[in-house]
Amino acid sequence: MSAAVSDIPGFEVEATDGGARAGRLWTSRHGLETPVFMPVGTRASVRTVTSADLESLGADIILGNTYHLMLRPGEELIAGLGGIHGFSDWHRLVLTDSGGYQVFSLEPKVDDDGATFRSTYDGSSHRLTPERAVDIQLALGSDIQMVLDVCPPLPAPAHVIGTAVARTGQWAQRGRGHFLARREQLAEADAGFERAQFGIVQGGLDLGLRRESAERTIEVGFDGYAIGGLSVGETRAEMEAPLGAVTEILPADRPRYFMGLGDPAGIVEAVAAGVDMFDCVWPTRLARHGTALTRNGRVNVGAARYARSDDPLDPDFPESPANRWSRGYVRHLLSVGEPAAARILTLHNLAWLFDLMARLRVAIVEQRFEDFRSEVLATWG
Amino acid sequence: MSAAVSDIPGFEVEATDGGARAGRLWTSRHGLETPVFMPVGTRASVRTVTSADLESLGADIILGNTYHLMLRPGEELIAGLGGIHGFSDWHRLVLTDSGGYQVFSLEPKVDDDGATFRSTYDGSSHRLTPERAVDIQLALGSDIQMVLDVCPPLPAPAHVIGTAVARTGQWAQRGRGHFLARREQLAEADAGFERAQFGIVQGGLDLGLRRESAERTIEVGFDGYAIGGLSVGETRAEMEAPLGAVTEILPADRPRYFMGLGDPAGIVEAVAAGVDMFDCVWPTRLARHGTALTRNGRVNVGAARYARSDDPLDPDFPESPANRWSRGYVRHLLSVGEPAAARILTLHNLAWLFDLMARLRVAIVEQRFEDFRSEVLATWG
Fold this sequence. Notes:
The structure is a homodimer. Chain A is an alpha/beta fold. Chain A has helices at residues 51-57, 66-71, 75-80, 83-88, 100-104, 130-140, 158-189, 207-220, 236-247, 264-272, 282-288, 327-335, 340-365, 369-380, and strands at residues 10-17, 20-26, 31-34, 36-38, 61-64, 93-96, 109-110, 115-118, 125-128, 144-146, 196-201, 224-227, 256-258, 277-279, 291-294, 297-300. The first copy, chain A, has two domains: 3-280, TIM Barrel, CATH 3.20.20.105; 286-373, no CATH class.
């Protein structure tokens, strides 16, 4: 392994409070503070907002979906238009998933080598292997790419999860080997070339399988480590033990990413266990369904009782970019189907969640994370 | 009539070139340069953008639809939330139509007193009279309101248009009388109260009826004058004579507004005839259908040939707020149904049309309007 493996992205833990970590993560493109929330831009766009809006909101990193982008518009087209950064004119960080999560929800044909699946766009047949997942994400140009893993839809019987863990381990080795070889080639042509690859720990709710998967992934050695296959329907209590089993053995000097988690209670619990990075459609999807995030919990702004409300979406968050509009106005926009409603709520919810992350980080630095956690759980738990 | 009638809005012609006028229009709330284009915010929102966006774009005045707003959310609700300005947090000018245009497209029951129609939202029955149109618009709080006119869907037989002109004249008198009485009352309570009311000239394509309608409207006396019932399907050549017949007798010291016109060729032709104000859904509706306005005409950005284009939407308009995104990116957003496409195109098309208006005004001031007109007609005629 080259020395670069432990350097990209740069990562430093600046403060800890119990298991919670406040850190920094960077590449030469952009740096950010952790814990960090990554908005989901499935198709190279966070729905209803633009890259200009995301800059104004202070977003540092967004997530793109390899499954969607490889099918529409295709990774080669994106590569030809400057990669995902040039294509969407977003010049902070981008993380792409491997496509595995979507593919495994489509009942693919899986063998030891890879998975064959049909496009939801036109029914055409496609194949994803650990090597191809690397190449697609290199073409997309994401700063951080994810290794292809096997994520059976849960709940699943133990032997299915066991097989998934074993295959995830084999694919991790192949994916990592291919990535390192390709990175070396590309870095020879361009000394400034910086790309990272994260491994993924699977294992369902089984502590033994979780530990086994974590150990295998660490043994392969990645630039960061993700926890996959949690927050897929289990209770928060059920999530706690398998999450803790993994974070207690992940290397402390590398970033840890909980895939698909983004609600405030889930975030504080995972931060308590030592997680640094999060992504979820939660805040943006809620926005499109008329829900505002507030210090007092969710507000269904479309409800008739807000028709005459002159309050902003969250009176306790005066920094919201949406505060100039009242609940009454947004309720009107929702009730007549005006697209500005989804935009205003998306701007608000993302700003609100970024603010939560910032306050959470300050709480860690100031050694009062437990108080902050209790406060968040009292509203969102 | 009080002295205020000729003062609100303030209006001054600063330069003329042939029939074309470059002027200024103002109230104490906001001032603007004419010729001016007013984006249409039917339901107190210009689709896909917010009042913050409209400020950034440099919009000076937007149009609201009385028909829609009286039904959803209702003028009393809007009045309770600060009027249309407070409600939508837009603090430049607002012009509202009278509701007549929409009502007459719904096959209403019309008698001498007013029109009874059914709501497209819930089928409920509503009535609009000249007096009620004034009161609704006063409650909405628009800076400029329109008198209720009779606008039969065209083409229509001569006797239908003749009856419409006669009734429009009677309603103008009633509407104006009611407006002046109400304005006097309201100005007694609030010395800073500023509201204007424009009359509307009807008459189809018949020159005699157009002149008769213009004379009757002028005789009643309004704060500005609108040309209604044109740009409803006739050719640009057919429009020329009735438009000229009206503008040549309208008072030169008051603003002139062509209702429902917004394409570049139509605008330059109407400006040539002495019109100062325009509104149309044209640029924003085209945007939502994937069309960008450019110096070379319309571009259907969703077309496959733009899939790999790195050009901005209009390479000849580097000031576009959408220039950071390529045609290829916007084409992708359109092809996968991402809402950011409509937003990016709406921002571009409005900025493009505002730029056209600004260039048009400079051409008038610099006495080269005919060249500018020929240039626009060569592309858009």
